[in-house]
Amino acid sequence: MTLSLHDVDPDDADAQQLLAELSDILQALTGSSGRSSFSAADARGPGSRFVVARDASGRAVGCGALRPLQPGVAELKRMYARAGTRGVGAAVLAYLETAARELGYRAVWLETRAVNTRAVAFYTRQGYRRIDNFGRYVGNAAAVCLGKDWRMTIKELNAAQAQARVGELAEVLRDCVEGGASVGFMLPLAAGRPEAFWRRVAEGVAAGERHLFVAEDEHGRVCGTVSLVIDMPDNQPHRADVSKMLVHRRARRQGLAERLLLALEAKARELGKTTLVLDTVTGSDASRLYERLGWQKAGDIPNYALMPDGAPCSTTYYFRALTDSSRGA
């Protein structure tokens, strides 16, 4: 289908007709029209866009909006493609993503409803990943929040690279512990302790005992990390452990933990591993992430560890069988 896309005022007659159709569809599908979460003023201010797509005859066939959400992040709103059209949604999305980049955004977030499985599948195909619910959607089990951050990259570090970035890795660890994460360290952190830990990790990479992955922000700084530990007993050559999943607080709610974990699972499959094991604080955000990605709960151990402030916490063990059917879950 030949399409043309143009920025318009959301009060444009065609835009209003498209928005009305979208609201009716959402009302029937989800029980909410979505009207209360968007106003025309949202798409008129600085950093905003409203676009209408037209076919070769000039008929309006789709629309979408972009509005500021928080520094560096835009929110996608009112995406709609008329029934019977092909490629309209993808074209509108690509147009708005380009606009977001030009406006200086580093990421685009959105919300849809879990019952709207077609929308969830569409955004997933377009490279969006599940993120923590944000804003008005926090605590809403019916809401699914997705995001795409084109400036965040995931890479594996070799031993020399790991040694060179000990300082950045230590900063991430220090931030997580100071933020209350139970990851093997107590407050106050002794000077040099995080750096010493990461130097040992780099030595483990050099010895072939583990694989180290990092997430880098738009400035190339490490903002997240996870390790695949493959130094196992002789009777467990098929198994590996997931260790030190950490994301700096400044980089959270952008899907980095999921991307790090998927990169780690891909490496595990490449190495022929069929079983992965990890543990985390019972009921934590991390536990919800692992369960959503298909990890199986093995059990809880009460009072297994301490939080950084000394309070006891329960730990949950998870495992994942890496089979063809689990690929990309």
Structural features, described:
There is one protein chain. This protein has a seven-stranded mixed β-sheet, with helices on both faces. The protein has two domains: 4-149, Gcn5-related N-acetyltransferase (GNAT) (Aminopeptidase, 3-Layer(aba) Sandwich); 153-326, Aminopeptidase, CATH 3.40.630.30. Helix 5 packs across helix 6. Mean pLDDT is 93; it is low at 324-329. A hairpin with a 2-residue loop joins strand 3 (60-70) and strand 4. The chain has 329 residues and is of the alpha+beta class. It has eight helices and 14 strands. The chain has helices at 13-30, 88-102, 117-125, 159-164, 166-178, 193-206, 256-270, 285-292, and strands at residues 4-7, 49-54, 60-70, 73-81, 107-113, 129-130, 143-149, 153-157, 210-216, 222-229, 239-247, 275-281, 296-306, 312-321.
Q: What is the topology?
A:
Layout lengths: L3 E4 L5 H18 L18 E6 L5 E11 L2 E9 L6 H15 L4 E7 L3 H9 L3 E2 L12 E7 L3 E5 L1 H6 L1 H13 L14 H14 L3 E7 L5 E8 L9 E9 L8 H15 L4 E7 L3 H8 L3 E11 L5 E10 L8
Parallel strand pairs: 4-5, 11-12
Antiparallel strand pairs: 1-2, 2-3, 3-4, 5-7, 6-7, 8-9, 9-10, 10-11, 12-14, 13-14
Helix pairs in contact: 5-6
Organism: Roseateles puraquae
Pfam family, one: Acetyltransf_1
Keywords: Acyltransferase, Transferase
